[in-house]
Amino acid sequence: MGKINRLIFSILSMVLMSLTQVNAQEQTGEYNIIESRNDSLDLANHFYDIYDSNSMYHPASDVYENWDNEYIHYPQVDFTKKEDTTSILLVGATLGKFCMPRKGGINSEYGWRHRRFHYGMDIDLDIGDSVVSAFDGVVRISKYHKGYGNVIVVRHFNGLETVYGHLSVNRVVENQNVKAGELLGYGGSTGRSTGPHLHFETRYLGTPFNPRKIIDFEKRCLQSDTLLVCKYTFNNIQPPRTVATTTTTTTQNTGNHSTQTYTSGKGTYHTIKKGETLSHLAALYNTTVARICQLNGISSRSVLQIGQKVRVK
Question: Tell me, what's the pLDDT at 257?
Fold first, then answer.
């Protein structure tokens, strides 16, 4: 009987101690939250400051704190204070190979466009053309977005993420493993798009950088098997500085309307008016469509926008 009494007393003491600890936590506001794997994934979809224990099962878990299927962009890291250089291998035995996401001309480059920054490359295609993964990885996002349209984000095993926007149809699901060259979806013009093209982005820790730093779009291969990441890797996201050059603006009458030409130390630019085409510009400036496309990194099928500045010489 004495043993039973001691056991009951021991249990009551443990309960009383637990209640005392809870009361102390309530007063100090300190709680230790223990999550299941499923819960942690759900929480990470809404709060970026919570470490997601499920991330260890996904690519680059050593550099990313979470894995979520809601936010297209991982919170950007400020690289302006980065003083060292990180070497990121792009291809290899454990990383796989590289494949062009779509073989086509470039409609629009990475950089400033119409007073807004364009964070990717627009690759020309027709609706229904195949779009494939650039590298091996895991699909983090596959959904519709009002800006990107049907969009897919793939996180790769070296920490890079690639974004594929304006698709007509997505053919992969979230958390699906994909190989370089594997079909992701079909080209389209969904979301904020003026015509069929693939909007392609490259990002590291949520921060975009020019895809040309790793891809030669003309030769359709990698620039190198390694990306060197330093603060200058992302410096092209800043507004362009004004260059001190002699500039002139001239107005020409061409029948029904006037054209405005801007000349700087780096070339001659034409401001697009309604109805103007690449052929019109070639004839006006005694050049060729191919030369204009080369100067601007566009294809002969590119759609010119009113107000767009096009280099003609």
Answer: 44
Question: Rounded to whole angstroms, how far apart are CA atoms 79 and 274?
Answer: 41
Residue bearing tokens 């095993």: 157
Alpha-carbon distance values, 283 to 53, 277, 288 (Å): 62, 10, 8
Q: Which long-range contacts (CB under 8 A, 24 or more apart) does 292-299 make?
A: 293/105, 295/267, 297/106, 297/109, 298/105, 298/106, 298/107, 298/108, 299/104, 299/105, 299/106, 299/107, 299/124
For residues 278 and 304, the answer to whether their CB atoms sit within 8 Å is yes
DSSP character at residue 284: H
Q: Which residues pair with 6 in a beta bridge?
A: none
Look up tokens 């070497």; give the residue.
87
Round the average pLDDT of the chain to a whole number and report it.
78
Separation in Å, CA 90 to CA 98, 159, 225 = 8, 10, 5
| Residue linked to tokens 């990107």 | 148
CA–CA separation, 115 and 111 (whole Å): 10
Residue range 145-171: mean pLDDT, rounded: 97
DSSP per residue over 84-121, as a string? S-EEEE-SBTTTB----S----EEE-SEEETTEEE-SE
Residue 58, both tokens: 């996904």
pTM above the 0.70 mark?
no
**pLDDT tens-digit map of 236-286:** 644 433 333 344 444 444 444 445 554 444 578 888 887 788 877 877 877
Residue 302 and residue 310 in contact, taking contact as beta carbons nearer than 8 Å: no
The single residue listed with the structure tokens 């060197």 is 228
